[in-house]
Amino acid sequence: MEGSLIWILVVHILVIAYQGEVGASERIQKDFQYNPKQPYRTAYHFQPSKNWMNDPNGPMYYKGIYHLFYQYNPYAAVWGNITWGHAVSHNLIDWIDLEHAIEPTEPYDINGCWSGSATMLPGGNPVILYTGADFKNRQVQNLAEPKNPSDPYLKEWIKAKNNPLMTPINGIDPQFFRDPTTAWQGPDKRWRVVVGSQIDGHGTALLYRSKDFVTWTKSEKPLHFSNKTKMWECPDFYPVIVSRRNGLDTSVHSKNSKHVLKASFDDQDYYIIGTYNPETDKFIPDVDFMESYLKLRYDYGIFYASKTFYDSAKRRRILWGWVTEADDKLDDIKKGWSGLQSIPRSIVLDKNGKQLTQWPIKEIERLRRKEVSLQNKGVKGGTAFEITGITASQADVEVSFHLPNLHDAELMHPEKVDPKILCSEKNASAKGVIGPFGLMVLASKNLTERTAVFFRVFKSHDDKYAVLMCSDQTRSSLRKEVNKSSFGAFVDVDPKENISLRSLIDHSIVESFGGGGKTCITSRVYPELAVGQEAHLYVFNYGTKSVTISNLHGWSMGRAKIFPAHGKRMFPIPN
């Protein structure tokens, strides 16, 4: 205990010294410092200093500190040698990257310490369940506990002596048995946990129960399965509350709560909402996986293997997601790193009860610097204009559009089309009636390069409208080897009211939130021209009908502080 207090005191002294050492003008310069040797490295998204990173693991809030663990290769910018990296923060924006938390050292995890989750036990101490690839390359579930629970930084972890706790027996395929969820307690005080699997070719959430968190018994029936999907990776299961913006602890159940089951498959994170009975462990979805044309996802772009946690300090549920690269493997090796974490998002049940909404956590706004704004500006069809005055390669932009005339909208039946294909066919260059209108980000001065995030509005049936949101990367880079796919989804909003868009732009990543976070699309882009100070930001409308910008606010974004464990300085981040 004494050693932890001394360590905390030392690093707090260092941060005070650092703040005195770096003046305001120097901090501003560092905020927007561009490195031409690393044009795609981000300024305010979490990433280690080098090498490969994938799934977020075991996020938690403990003794005033936020913890993020992540899948990490300590030796290269490609997948392999998987270890649990570990970073800590006071605000979910600035981070200290600590020593590795869990390393592949034992027969039950010698081929990799794969994904898992953290659970808070009744006494308040955290434990971790994770998948190990054992010496036979079977997937097994293991337990790790903090060596010193009084240390808020949880710098050291000890693996349980009786690992593995769960093994692939009774017909479970040892290659499809991984990624345990955060556990929850039922009214009988027994713990439950879900492990992702594939049974007879069907995606399955295997359910296990335990009285002591050590001896686990598989339920005869899974929590849920689907004959329309294959392997479920990185499942997540948690409660959400109707008509409230607060989150719920994973073990909480109430009359007004629903439950979310998320599964990662087909390179996407799909989710369903339903009713869970904690007495019988029966989960009944309102609409099952792949049974609706909407096919609900957290994000319709590049976003996978996500994990949520309950933030008890601010009574909210927070979502992390892995954002992969979209360039070539050789590019990753050359630049020396691969993989980002999304900006943490608050996630709640929408007021319609049919879907979730997500929004960047409030803390990200502390990085906002210089601001520009517009109100009530008309944008004629076939025009675009530049938003100047902010750093376009490192920005946060919020804009809302008013559509004065919807009568001439093109006809379309949303249940009969694939929105991603529709966005590819009707990209930003394809003129329409109402749209495309939105933002062109990370654009070169002459628009040779541009990433367009935009809307189109269609008339569907019974005088109702369908709003399509697209992220078009087809002209994002002159480089030929990068993936320039387009992404798209419908947004459940009424276009008779304002349509809103928020985009977080950070050099090679664009996270966009449509309709107040009802639809989210994340993209990775690698421009050659639109880098650093040569990046530009435009509002455009290539439809025939005019639109009006009700409000636009844009900010240059500062740089998050991410300190490596072996750096010259280590200090906690000020609140």
UniProtKB/TrEMBL annotation:
Classification via InterPro entries: ConA-like_dom_sf (IPR013320), Fructan_Metab_Enzymes (IPR050551), Glyco_hydro_32 (IPR001362), Glyco_hydro_32_AS (IPR018053), Glyco_hydro_32_C (IPR013189), Glyco_hydro_32_N (IPR013148), Glyco_hydro_beta-prop_sf (IPR023296)
Domain Glycosyl hydrolase family 32 N-terminal: 45-360
BP terms from Gene Ontology: carbohydrate metabolic process
Keywords noted in UniProt: Glycosidase, Hydrolase, Signal
Residues in the signal sequence: 1-24
Keyword Signal: yes
Residue span(s) of domain Glycosyl hydrolase family 32 C-terminal: 363-555
GO molecular function: hydrolase activity, hydrolyzing O-glycosyl compounds
Subunit structure: May be present in two forms, a 70 kDa monomer and a heterodimer of the 30 kDa and 38 kDa subunits. The ratio of the levels of the two forms within cells appears to be regulated developmentally.
Family stated for the protein in its record: Belongs to the glycosyl hydrolase 32 family.
Name of this chain's protein: Uncharacterized protein
Species whose genome carries this gene: Coffea canephora
